[in-house]
Design goal:
This is Gal80p-like C-terminal domain-containing protein. By secondary structure, the protein is α/β, with parallel strands linked by helices. About 30% of the residues lie in helices and about 30% in strands. The mean pLDDT is about 90.
């Protein structure tokens, strides 16, 4: 069987794609199943830099495209990149529910397979949680509680915004706190415990403006206005009857010594509790780090060292045609429906049924 030839849109030499996605695809265990043959970025310089880096990783020359993604999508040597073919799409998989639905409809019409970048559901911690729940060790789950924080040291959303991240403050671009870190976590929650039946939400904006900083964190003197909230209280009931309470806050200091809890997720069963937590400044981004885990108060060891190994499993399932545990474009639509329901509830002050 020939390897699936990938044209990777947005694969730069830094960022999430370079630290998790590319290493998982170029892992020796997937040699012969996937091969990166082309990359596409926004500029000629960044595309060539990316092509040079990954050519060294895969052992052959990689084509460099920039600008219009139709160029890489029409490359006859590329098997996986766009809706006309099987495709991978990083979450949020569209700037809005309407856009994601349009992508899903096109994918179904073409009869192609899809895989979405919701890598957190492949973590060792989540696999362990599913195993414990299936064993009945904590009894019937009745409720779950999440406390999370995105600190000001992470220069993506106000009060501190990196020069390259200024697009995130505009809601139309679909890169808000709700659509990225919060939705990533809600995907993991529903992956483990099931879908929401109803949701009630309250939001607040404590940081209406953001100070723009350069790549070294130095203030540029520019200030930009944020169009989206920075705090969310999300509660609801899952289809299983489980009661959910989620509180995300942002913008506070994450410096050591504040005592601030960055990420805690508890799952309460009648006979016990599962808790995962992280004290890392970006610990709420559980697709990047494995959290600590406790079952009935006792620490349980999980494989904390290789998030790439977890993501690699999803790629292997996709390559062999297995349904697997990876997210599809239909999961992306479901998540966007939940995002819209949260925004509607917060805007109108009412419970929204899904």
């Amino acid at each position: 069987m020939s390897p699936i030839k990938i044209g990777f849109v947005g694969l730069s030499t830094t960022g999430c794609a370079s630290t998790v996605l590319a290493p998982s695809l170029t892992h020796p265990d997937l040699k012969g199943e996937y091969d990166i043959v082309a990359v596409s970025t926004t500029s000629e310089a960044s595309a060539q830099k990316s092509a040079d880096k990954y050519s060294a990783d895969v052992g052959h020359a990689i084509k460099a495209y920039h600008g219009d993604t139709s160029k890489i999508a029409s490359d006859p040597d590329v098997d996986l990149v766009a809706v006309a073919k099987d495709f991978f799409l990083e979450w949020p998989a569209g700037a809005s529910l309407e856009e994601t639905r349009a992508i899903a409809e096109a994918a179904h019409k073409q009869g192609v397979r899809t895989i979405i970048g919701l890598q957190g559901r492949h973590s060792a911690a989540l696999r362990k949680i599913k195993e414990i729940l299936a064993s009945g060790a904590i009894g019937a789950v009745k409720s779950t509680n999440v406390l999370a924080h995105v600190g000001r040291e992470f220069p993506c959303w106000p009060p501190t915004v990196g020069e390259a991240n200024q697009y995130v403050v505009e809601k139309k671009n679909g890169a808000t706190r709700l659509s990225i870190p919060i939705a990533h976590q809600l995907d993991k929650l529903t992956y483990v415990l099931g879908n929401f039946a109803s949701v009630t939400a309250t939001d607040a904006t404590f940081y209406p403006t953001g100070q723009v900083v350069d790549a070294k964190g130095k203030p540029t003197g520019k200030t930009i206005h944020s169009e989206t909230p920075d705090h969310y209280i999300i509660s609801g009931t899952l289809e299983s009857g489980v009661l959910v309470n989620v509180f995300w806050r942002a913008g506070y200091s994450s410096e050591e010594g504040t005592g601030r809890r960055q990420f805690v997720w508890e799952i309460d069963g009648e006979e016990g509790t599962i808790r995962i937590e992280s004290h890392k400044p970006t610990g709420a981004f559980t697709g990047l780090y494995e959290p600590d885990m406790y079952v009935n108060g006792q620490k349980v060891e999980v494989d904390r060292d290789d998030v790439i190994e977890s993501v690699k499993t999803a790629w292997k399932q996709f390559a062999t045609g297995e349904k697997g545990d990876y997210a599809t474009i239909d999961d992306a639509v479901k998540n966007h429906e939940l995002i819209d329901a949260i925004e509607l509830s917060a805007r109108e002050g009412r419970r929204v049924l899904l």
